[in-house]
């Protein structure tokens, strides 16, 4: 896809802090509702993700930040792929694809063995994207997110 050449993945920095919140809140309010846990994490990405050993990435298209994704640390070998959102105006540009590819490459570089995510089966394009990248469905425990009806994981080799 041609537009992917104009997409740059950049790491979190304090001056970009607001983007993870704005992108995710827009996405959450469109499809679900913002849960207390979301509000806490999105309002304090430095403390809730970075300081706990996680990573946040942004996708900039023509120098405008239109997507984000996070790797939230569970332990040294397992991270949750989380807080992934792409602006409505950027749908179809391949930003989700590029973010996911970047997260998987970072996992490989950092010797992370397992990535997992929570999603909802109404989000067909997202589920399709995760499957394309090798995520498979695993049993979902109750009570993590009210909106989650599917849990997927990818073993990193």
Label this structure with key terms.
7-stranded mixed sheet, alpha+beta, 7 strands
Query: Could you tell me the radius of gyration in angstroms?
Result: 14 Å
Order of helices and strands: EHHHEEEHEHEE
The averaged pLDDT comes out at 94
**Number of DSSP-assigned strands:** 7
Task: Specify the helix fraction band.
Answer: 25-40%
For the terminal residues, how far apart are their CA atoms? 27 Å
Going across the major beta sheet, what is the strand order? 1-2-3-4-5-7-6
Strand content: 25-35%
- Unreliable sequence segments: none
Number of helices: 5
Outline: globular
Helix vs. strand class:
alpha+beta
Q: How would a crystallographer describe the biggest sheet?
A: 7 strands, mixed
Describe this structure in words.
The structure is a single chain. This protein is α+β, with helices and mostly antiparallel strands and 157 residues long. Helix content is 34%, strand content 31%. It has helices at residues 17-31, 36-43, 45-50, 95-109, 124-132, and strands at 7-11, 55-61, 64-75, 78-86, 114-119, 136-138, 150-155. Strands 1-2-3-4-5-7-6 form a seven-stranded mixed β-sheet.
Give a short summary of the structure:
This protein is an alpha+beta fold and 157 residues long.
Set down the secondary structure blueprint.
Elements: E1 7-11, H1 17-31, H2 36-43, H3 45-50, E2 55-61, E3 64-75, E4 78-86, H4 95-109, E5 114-119, H5 124-132, E6 136-138, E7 150-155
Parallel strand pairs: 4-5
Antiparallel strand pairs: 1-2, 2-3, 3-4, 5-7, 6-7
